[in-house]
Design goal:
Fatty acid desaturase domain-containing protein, single chain, mainly alpha, 6 strands, 6% strand, 397 residues, Fatty_acid_desaturase, two-stranded antiparallel ribbon, transmembrane helix, transmembrane, disordered N terminus, membrane, two-stranded antiparallel sheet
């Protein structure tokens, strides 16, 4: 790769940088930037003061990207349900008659495939919570409630806490989840686990139990004055007007658990675990992995209340590349920056809208194409705590 060394002279200092003509892309106002997916640039800190507004970003997006189609959104629900049924049919009918040891190899394949497609269905339920499914809020809530309840997620409870997360992204004082520790607050067990086996254990624990524990105990979430969870209508997470719908979410889960009991009575616990239980656990794994990588990265700034504002927080996220799973997961993986800026754009317009705002975002947009397992381990190793920026007047960054 041909690189030209450029020496830039400033009034009081000299900066050395490298420009690669083949990796430039346009910024707003005709400038240039390095491709943010390049390894030598991906860990560079995201700037903190955007020269554009949310209105500027919306103007750059084609008008049709804001349009929600009930028919088109419903197609994706039906599509995912049909694919999930095909996986279930094949597993139920053919895996039990496979000779040893093929059956033991076939089950993990089924679990991965089914968890992937069900995560895509979960993503559609998540869109319903953002009113991105149709033009009718009651339809969005009905579809989201059914889909999330079937996947053991309290729809309204999570919708409201997730809305708070979008309203306070990367605020150390008010964000709802993925709030990093300050160096002085790092716990003893974090230090003990700061080694390769410990990181693997931490990742496995986070991926498998992270979401259930977040719902049950608000682990890694905002610190309230008392115990908080997603099932108590009186939890401090929720406002007075939200409490009835939180109770409705509980009833949805009770209905799902009753259906599981009936299946266990009819088919047996092992069958229900293999066909349904493990894939739903896989949905939790995918969900935590995706959100963890979206909000945990060496380039992302965090802000205390003296420096935080909404657009700063919304820009402090990063897109990830999950390869062929991007499409299965309805592109939620590599359109997350857009999603935090304009959350009601449907997933089938998200890539076009993301590409439309990238020239405006310039160096404020990042996508990390590091292989997922490598990225997981790197973030677990490097992203332990936060400190105020060195040599900066902005001590709240």
């Amino acid at each position: 790769m041909n690189k030209k060394r450029i020496l830039k002279l400033h009034k009081s200092h000299i900066t050395l940088s490298f420009a690669d003509k083949s990796s430039k892309s346009n910024m707003g106002a005709g400038g240039n930037m390095l491709d943010p997916s390049k390894a030598n640039d991906i860990l560079k800190r995201v700037p903190v003061e955007p020269p554009f507004s949310l209105s500027d970003l919306k103007k750059a997006i084609p008008a049709h990207c804001f349009e929600r189609s009930l028919i088109r959104s419903s197609y994706y629900v039906v599509h995912d349900l049909v694919v999930a049924y095909v996986f279930y049919f094949l597993a139920d009918k053919y895996i039990p008659i496979l000779p040893y040891p093929l059956a033991y190899l076939a089950w993990p394949v089924y679990w991965f495939c089914q968890a992937s497609i069900l995560t895509g269905l979960w993503v559609i339920g998540h869109e319903c919570g953002h009113h991105a499914f149709s033009d009718y809020q009651w339809i969005d809530d009905t579809v989201g409630f059914i889909v999330h309840s079937a996947l053991l997620t309290p729809y309204f409870s999570w919708k409201y806490s997730h809305r708070n997360h979008h309203a306070n992204t990367n605020s150390l004082d008010n964000d709802e989840v993925y709030i990093p520790k300050r160096k002085s607050k790092v716990t003893l067990y974090s230090k003990i686990l700061n080694n390769p086996p410990g990181r693997v254990f931490t990742l496995v624990f986070r991926l498998t139990l992270g979401f259930p524990l977040y719902l049950l105990t608000n682990i890694s979430g905002k610190k309230y004055g008392r115990f908080a969870n997603h099932f108590d209508p009186m939890s401090p997470i929720f406002t007075q007007r939200e409490r009835i719908q939180v109770l409705l979410s509980d009833f949805g889960l009770l209905a799902a658990f009753y259906a599981i009991k009936l299946l266990v009575d009819n088919k047996g616990a092992a069958w229900v675990t293999c066909i349904y239980g493990v894939p739903v656990l896989g949905v939790f794994v995918f969900f935590v992995l995706i959100t963890y990588l979206h909000h945990t990265h060496l380039s992302l700034p965090h802000y205390d209340s003296t420096e935080w504002n909404w657009i700063r927080g919304a820009l402090s996220t990063i897109d990830r590349d999950f390869g062929f799973l991007n499409r299965v997961l309805h592109d939620v993986t590599h359109t997350h920056v857009l999603h935090h800026l304009i959350s009601y754009i449907p997933h089938y317009h998200a890539k076009e809208a993301r590409d439309a705002i990238k020239p405006v975002l310039g160096e404020f947009y990042k996508i990390d194409r590091t292989p997922i397992f490598k990225a997981m381990y790197r973030e677990a190793k490097e992203c332990i705590y936060i400190e105020p920026d060195e040599d900066s007047e902005q001590k709240g960054v």
